[in-house]
Design goal:
six-stranded mixed β-sheet; 138 residues
């Protein structure tokens, strides 16, 4: 029903001791939990995880001063439902600058925006879902 996601680290001891994230393997589970407000961002992040998890059993997240939601198959994925607010966009893009590794691709998954930002490619969830964003350079 759920899958635990470990923090990415090169040292196994640090990886084991680090905080874990938990994702539902079916977004329907998110709908049965009692909530006081709808959070489309959580649903979107969970859906992105499920797509990545289908191709890679070793999806991790990266966290130090900033956080990248997912690291999978030499690519960084950040999920933000809405980046129309300049402050939100800046926060999301700064995380990529902090963790940019050699030869990694960087994707910012949004609800509906497709745009290139310097080292980051923002893509809509629809494009991510249907164009297989794990290799999306079309």
């Amino acid at each position: 029903m759920f899958k635990r996601v470990d923090r990415f680290h090169t040292k196994p001891r640090v990886k084991i001791k680090s905080g874990k994230k938990l994702y539902a393997l079916d977004n329907g589970f998110l709908q049965i939990a009692p909530t006081f407000f709808a959070n489309d961002g959580i649903s979107l992040e969970n859906a992105v995880f499920n797509i990545l998890n289908q191709k890679d059993d070793n999806v991790t997240y990266i966290k130090e001063n900033y956080e990248i939601d997912f690291y999978s198959n030499n690519a960084l994925y950040q999920v933000s439902y809405d980046i129309s607010n300049e402050k939100t966009l800046k926060r999301e893009l700064n995380a990529f600058k902090h963790f940019k590794f050699n030869n990694t691709k960087s994707y910012l998954i949004t609800y509906d925006i497709n745009k290139d930002f310097d080292i980051v490619k923002a893509i809509s969830f629809e494009k991510f879902l249907f164009d297989d964003a794990r290799g999306i350079d079309k």
